[in-house]
Design a protein that fits this description.
It contains five helices and nine strands; from the N terminus they run αβββαβαβαββββα. It has about 220 residues and is an alpha+beta fold. Helix 3 links the parallel strand 4 and strand 5. It starts with 9 loop residues before the first helix and ends with a helix. GO terms for molecular function: metal ion binding.
């Protein structure tokens, strides 16, 4: 009785071996590529974790124990902002002279930041008049000035904490009328570790160096 089985020729065997070899090579290449991607992702995650877990230096504002309230009514500490570059200014919402110009300067800085670093930056406005500037008032002010995006943060605290923080920023302010203050016009840049990196002083000044410093510090986070 004849068998219908067919033994592959040497040529067919060679072709089968070639196909298997190619499949094995592509599989090896794919696995290698996958390992590279996983390694890169691990490095990114490790870098972010190191930024968050890095010990706080003696020069960092994250050492301050003071409690603050943001425009959403949430209680926070300065260290809760750790991990991003902070662009900070002290204002009060009822101000009719210098503060609107400081707000304009902050908006101009935000608009000029490169898109690829904006997620690494928070723009923080701290009230020097916490009695008037309640969380509700700060929220309304943010909306009125189109500063209610995720990158904007408004803070208020006690008068004692506010005075202490102003000293850290070298901001002087004094109440000269029931709803009026005289104050310094300074925009401060803090790196991701909460250390002062740069200050811009004055109203309507050229912000090129400020933006350059923000960009430099923000790129270190990536």
């Amino acid at each position: 009785m004849k068998s219908n089985s067919h033994s592959p020729s040497l040529s067919e065997q060679a072709n089968l071996l070639k196909v298997k070899t190619e499949k094995s090579r592509y599989k090896t290449l794919f696995l290698g590529f996958l390992l590279i991607l996983l390694s890169l992702q691990s490095c990114v995650n490790k870098s972010k974790a190191e930024t968050i877990d890095k010990p706080i230096s003696d020069l960092s504002i994250y050492n301050l124990p003071s409690k603050w309230t943001n425009e959403e009514g949430e209680d926070i500490e300065m260290k809760d902002l750790k991990g991003k570059v902070l662009v900070m200014v002290m204002i009060y919402t009822s101000c009719k002279s210098a503060c609107p110009r400081l707000v304009a300067d902050m908006r101009n800085i935000e608009q000029r930041l490169p898109n690829n670093i904006k997620d690494n930056v928070n723009l923080v406005l701290v009230s020097i008049d916490p009695t008037v500037d309640t969380a509700k008032r700060l929220k309304a002010f943010a909306i009125e000035n189109k500063m209610d995006g995720a990158q904007w943060v408004f803070l208020r605290s006690s008068e004692e904490n506010t005075r202490e923080f102003a000293a850290v920023l070298a901001v002087n302010y004094k109440k000269i009328a029931p709803l009026e203050f005289s104050h310094s016009n300074i925009i401060s840049v803090f790196n991701a570790d909460g250390e002062l990196a740069y200050q811009q002083e004055g109203l309507g000044v050229n912000s090129d160096q400020t933006i350059q410093k923000i960009t430099e510090e923000a790129q270190k986070i990536n």
